[in-house]
Every structure is written in C-alpha cells, then in structure tokens.
Amino acid sequence: MELVNGRYQIQGIDLESLAQEYGTPLYVYDAKKIEEQINTLKDAFSGLKLKIKYACKSLTNISILKLMKKYGVEIDAVSIQEVNMALKAGFKPGEILYTPNCVSFEEIQEAINIGVMINIDNISILEQFGHEYHDTIPVCIRLNPHIMAGGNKKISTGHVDSKFGISIFQMRHLLRVIQTYNINVIGLHMHSGSDILDAEVFIRSAEIFFDAAQEFKQLEFIDFGSGFKVAYRDGDVTTDIKQLGEKLGASFKEFCKDYGKKLEIWFEPGKFLVSESGYFLVKTNVIKTTPATVFVGVDSGLNHLIRPMMYDSYHDIVNISHTEGINRIYTVVGYICETDTFGTDRKLTEVSEGDILVIKNAGAYCFSMSSNYNSRLRPAEVLIYNGEPKLIRKKETFEDILKNQVEVDF
Ligand SMILES: *Cc1c(COP(=O)(O)O)cnc(C)c1O
Question: How many CA atoms does the CB half-sphere of 312 hold within 13 Å?
Fold first, then answer.
C-alpha cells in the first residue's frame, strides 16, 4: 500500500473506503504484488526449465488459485481437498503436485486415480505404493537432508526431530525398496522449512541432493520446496532471490551436465507469493488504558489471524484513519476471550475509537488458518485486480456457523 495525499491506497483504491464498503474485519489482497513476486522468481531462474508450484495452503481462495493459473503458476497441494480445489479452479491433474504427510494410503490412491503427481515422504507408504503400482505410476520422493532451517521450530521441517521426508541417512533402505518394487522415481523433493535466511542453505541442501540424485536414473525434475523469507518489517533481511538464482542456477546446471540430462527445477512458494499481498483491515472498538498499557481493542482476534499468537510472528500495524499527527505507544489486541495480542508496544499515529488499522503481511497463513472460535464469523476477502476491487469471499453469516450442527431436543 502507498500513502497518497494522506490516504493509504492499493492500485489507486482507497483502503479506508474499502473498509466502509465491505465492512470490517476485511482481508484485502493486491494481485499486482503477487504477479511481481512470480516475476522475480521467474527472472532469477530464467535460464532454466523452471516450474513454480504455489503452496496453496497459504491462501486457498479459489479466485487466488485462478489468478495463479493466469500467471502460469501450478499447484502444490497437501490434502485431497486442496487437490479438488485446484481442479475446480481449472488446473489439470498434471499441473498439481500432491505432497501429503501422514495421510492414509486410501487418500493417496484417491489422488493417484485423479492423476496428480504424488510426493511420497515415508518408506512405509512407499512400500505399499510399490506393492500396488510397481512402475506404472511415476512418483516423486521427499527427502529430508537435515539442514536446520527456518525461523521458528514450528515451521522448520528439516531438523532431525522433524516428521517430514525420508531421511537422507535411510538412503540404502530407500533404494532397496525402490529396486525391489521397480518404482519409477521421476522427481526428488526437499522442503527445509519456512523463513530460510540465506541462499547458502539452499546450496548446501542442493549439494546433498545432487549426490543423492545420481542414484536415480529416471529423474525429470528436482523440487527445492520453499521457505523463502519475506520482509515483515522495515529492514528485515529476506532471501535474496536473485543471488539464489545465480548460485543455485549455476550448481543446478553443473549437476544436469553430470547427470546427462536437462532436468526441470521446481519451487513451491507459499508465503513468498502471497504474504505481502495481504492486508487485514480491522476497526478500533475500544481504547482501554490500564496502569501499565494503552490497549487498542479491535473487532477481530486470533480467530481471524493467529500467526502472532501461534508463531510469535511480527506483523506491522498502521492506523490508516489518522496518518498524520503524534505517535503514541499502543498494544493492539483482539476481542477473543483469551490473550490475543496482534502487536505489543507499537508506535501508531494517535488512535481514536472507530479508526481502521491495517495489519500487514496478511496474505499467507492468515485467512487459511482462521476459525469460528468464540462463534465469530469469518471475514470477507477482496482482491484488487487491474485497479478494481473484486469480492472473492462473502462474510460468513450466523447460518453458516449453524449449518452442520444437529440440534437435539431434550
Ligand atoms: C507449506 C509448504 C510449502 C510452502 O512454504 P512457505 O514457507 O509458505 O513458502 C512448500 N512446500 C511444502 C511441502 C509445504 O508443506
């Protein structure tokens, strides 16, 4: 968003007016930012056969999926429901990678029957798969290179205690299973976790991978997962995509030469594509002064945006109703009946009751992790595309909450 004549806007659309038109709380997404992120990634790997598989768990709205399709991005799904959502959005089965963890073999078979590419991440399922399909269905294998990465233990997946992937130390066993069942492995995958800071982590994982990859003779792609870090506040260090493109691109080309074939390089960004595109608009209900703090109580809470409470993540907050004047220190909290703090000791331009605040970086893992806790309704979502706001989800109604409940009379 940008400040123009004292008003915050996105693609020329006034944000506070959107709050008035659609009501608060409200999620707003900027399609232009999503397109920019895609182009940054495409440019960084322009010399290679690149495929971007959007990790749609980060923001699963069907119109966002259709937007990704328009921009030439494919899908990484982690549940059969996400697979079905992607199909509904118009993706072909061949454009969807299904990367489940600890799901039933029946769900994997359902995905195979649909025709999506399966990413297998444990030896037990791989054995069942081999027994059932042998070499008739190509698969991708998720390896865990045990590179410690990620900003928070909950979002790190590469460490040795992690439940994800087949350990690189189980390589002998893995190959034994593959050979015994004659399994057709066409892809190798890794995803070390979210918020990886520097290109070196990728390079180190890549080197482990390239060694391992020589054991597989029918590879068509290598999938480096995701974990690109984006800026949550001014001055944040972020993954340097350009540098990553140069370094990883060079070692990938070298590997392809050794391997004797030009493989595709895949990534599965979620946060990188959508985090910064999202803005969460909330209204100030109450200013409450206690002996210790001035609280700003807003019309939302951890039911709509749980990242600060769950991951201790920092989300910038801006008062868009008053953009000039003195700054004061506030702690911004939600209306849920337990502690739900969006931000502690934040400097905001003086807040009055009724003011609209914007919580930034609200694109990834915000709406998609929302709930009806406290029997609250989930908010509407608006996408700004080509300078026009488009409603892509209506606000829930009381009937939505009751819909699947069964009333028993006593
Ligand atoms: C969650 C997830 C991603 C996306 O991670 P981000 O940090 O949002 O980019 C990619 N791949 C897999 C397998 C995931 O589970």
Answer: 5
